[in-house]
Amino acid sequence: MPLHDFFHAALARTRLLRTLLVLLMGLFIAMALSACNKETVSFRNTDITGANFGHDFSLLDPDGATRSLADFRGKVVMMFFGFTQCPDICPTALSRAAQVRQLLGDDADKLQVIFVSVDPERDLPGVLKAYTAAFDPDFLGLYTSLEETRKVADEFRVFYRKVPTGGSYSMDHTATSYVFDPAGRLRLAVSYQSPAEAVAADVQTLIQTASSRP
Question: Are residues 120 and 167 in the same domain?
Answer without folding.
Answer: yes
